[in-house]
Amino acid sequence: MIRKEDFMKLYNSYSQKIEPLKPIQDNKISMYVCGPTVYNYPHIGNARPIVVFDTLKKALQVQGYNVTFVSNYTDVDDKIINVAIENNVSEKEITDKYIKAYNEVRTGLHADLPDVAPRVTETMDKIISFIEELIQKGAAYQVDGDVYFRIESDPIYGELSHQKMDDLMVGARIDENSKKENPLDFTLWKQTDKGIQWDSPWSKGRPGWHTECVVMIQDVFKTDLIDIHGGGLDLKFPHHENEIAQSQACNHTRLANTWVHNGMINIDGTKMSKSLG
């Protein structure tokens, strides 16, 4: 008898190998894909992960798997705040507008909407609690209202992007923040008086980008290990690397068994992006 997993093999960025898909639960697949930061209209580069992961979801469904597909919207960010200030409107008006635009692109491409589409702003209490837990475990520390992840708490940091700590340190010293114990330490909470803010035990501010997806995965799936985590190749480092580090610190898991990254759409050898126009 041919097993279902023999039909579906994926390139796992974590192991750098093509592997049979082995679900955590029989006939069920949990899949999370990092969604966009919604401060402008989507372009064709943003459409690529929509198509790639909708195709993957539907291919899995054809094989008989019950797929729960989750993709978030990052609706708090410096870019969003700047656009809101420029237009003299609230951040929510900006994010609602562009979430609607992204959903129209999805349906226009005949892609399904995610089964669940969490927003960062709706998960803030859980994000703050997660950061508190990291501090309690010694994996994070607070300085002058900011909170940083202690990179040396993860002895295997770099396991996803397959980079060595010493090599990363060379580049990190160029942009050294004197508040950090280690220039590679990344921000979990940022004290600010600009734009939308939340009260926390450390300061009035907002979370760092790398913490948000870890918390939303745990909140939606009610577990600390899912089958597939996806996103663009540009997210492998540092975003996904930092997600794994936090998950290892709190839960001793790599967050997902299989990490899948779609390639970029390039123009003249450079990734298509809004920041480059």
Written overview of the protein:
This protein has helices spanning 44-62, 78-87, 91-108, 124-136, 165-172, 209-221, 236-251; strands spanning 9-12, 17-20, 28-33, 66-71, 140-143, 146-149, 186-191, 198-199, 204-207, 226-232, 256-262, 266-267, 270-271. It is of the alpha/beta class and 277 residues long. A 5-stranded antiparallel beta sheet has the order 5-6-7-9-8. A 4-stranded parallel beta sheet has the order 4-3-10-11, with helices on both faces. It has a two-stranded antiparallel ribbon with strand order 1-2. Helix 7 (236-251) links the parallel strand 10 (226-232) and strand 11 (256-262). Helix 4 crosses helix 6 (209-221). The longest helix has 19 residues, at 44-62.
Largest sheet entry: 5 strands, antiparallel
**Which class of secondary structure composition applies to the elements?**
alpha/beta
Q: What is the helix tally?
A: 7
Helix content: 25-40%
**Which residue ranges are poorly predicted, with pLDDT under 50 across at least 5 consecutive positions?**
none
Rg is 19 Å
Strand order of the largest sheet: 5-6-7-9-8
The total of beta strands comes to 13
Task: Quote the average pLDDT.
Answer: 93
- Assign an overall shape: globular
Report, as a whole number of angstroms, the end-to-end distance: 53 Å
Strand content: 15-25%
Q: Secondary-structure element order, as H and E?
A: EEEHEHHHEEHEEEHEHEEE
